[in-house]
Amino acid sequence: MSSENVTSSVPMTPLTTLSDSEDDLARIEEAMHASVITADTYLTEIASHLIVAGGKRLRPVLATVSARIAGSAASDDVVLGGVACELVHLGSLYHDDVMDEADTRRGVETVNAKWGNLQAILAGDFLLSRASEIAASLGVEVAGLLARTIGWLCEGQIEELRHTYDVSRSEESYYASIHGKTASLYGTAARIGGIVAGHDGATVEALTEFGNAYGMVFQIVDDVLDATATEEQLGKPAGHDMVEGVYTLPVLRTVALETPAAAELAELLGSPLDAANQARALAIVRDGDGVESALATAGDFARRAVEACDGFPDSAATDALRSAPAALLATVTSPV
């Protein structure tokens, strides 16, 4: 369960349309590419594969926007802190693709498909090491925070794996998993932006709360898209998570409905799906109330994110933070 569906199908968010974000994005892109250059051109090619493939760089963008809520510019150190978070994310994708035996990512061959599993694992480790090196250059607090976030990511992945094909998976398990795998990196990116920019402690805590809540919205939206969007929108077959035995909030909410269709879905799940059963399972989820219920929960997290901004100074960056959760929700509350 990666957090990539959203980035491929959602338009630019308020976080990436600020008046001076073009400069931030250029600096982020330059730092991303520079971070993986080594004396070994083969390793550089592998490590930069998904960077070259593109992406909205939402984690470093969130770090720079968080730094700018008081009206000042984001320093180069803020950019580096955000890049460290993005490198952790990319490293996790390298590892995810090995575990999922995935062939494509962001419209290109995965590293494991192109170079092999061993190279993909080692390149993912390399990205994590570069992220840690950058964080260490920003001080002990940032280094410790990034290390803890990598731990959260692993905990979230383990929580997901232990409930693979588990139709009785609890919502608490789901929330714990997506906090570790997705939301924690957004919380950390926002927190690093605040720390490096020198914001006071209360502001840093509020930025962290915003990032965590925004990340929860992001992943729930992503999981809804996996069940409702088309293959063309996703860049991969819809219902991939169900095929892999990862039962996300819209699926869990559908199974919990006391209807014949929900009972049929529960019977279908619990083991790998063939194409016919995958199509039927998708149809049940799309036709039931589980998707709407999941989006209502995403709305609760969106409101929590906006409330976290209450104490921030009035600025374009603060406005962008307040607008971002609703813009994310709008991508799935509109017809897909």
Describe the protein's architecture and organization.
The protein has a domain at 19-225 and 305-330: Farnesyl Diphosphate Synthase (Orthogonal Bundle), CATH 1.10.600.10. The chain is built from 18 helices and 2 strands. The protein has a two-stranded antiparallel ribbon with strand order 1-2. α6 runs antiparallel to α10, α8 runs antiparallel to α9 (140-162) and α11 (201-228) runs parallel beside α18 (316-333). The protein has helices at residues 5-9, 21-35, 41-47, 49-53, 58-67, 76-100, 111-115, 117-137, 140-162, 171-197, 201-228, 231-234, 240-243, 249-255, 260-268, 275-287, 290-308, 316-333, and strands at residues 104-105, 108-109. The protein is 73% helix and 1% strand. With 336 residues, the chain is mainly α.
Distance between the termini: 20 Å
Helicity level, as a percent range? over 70%
CATH class of the domain at 19-225 and 305-330: Mainly Alpha
Classify the beta-strand content into a percent band.
Answer: under 5%
Mean pLDDT: 90
Number of helices: 18
* Rough outline: globular
CATH topology of the domain at 19-225 and 305-330: Farnesyl Diphosphate Synthase
> Poorly predicted ranges (pLDDT <50, ≥5 residues)?
5-12
Give a quick account of the main beta sheet: strands, pairing sense, barrel closure. 2 strands, antiparallel
* CATH homologous superfamily assignment of the domain at 19-225 and 305-330: Farnesyl Diphosphate Synthase
Helix/strand class: mainly alpha
Written as H for each helix and E for each strand, in order along the chain, the element string is: HHHHHHEEHHHHHHHHHHHH
Radius of gyration: 19 Å
**Number of distinct beta strands:** 2
What is the annotated CATH architecture of the domain at 19-225 and 305-330?
Orthogonal Bundle
| Biggest sheet strand line-up | 1-2
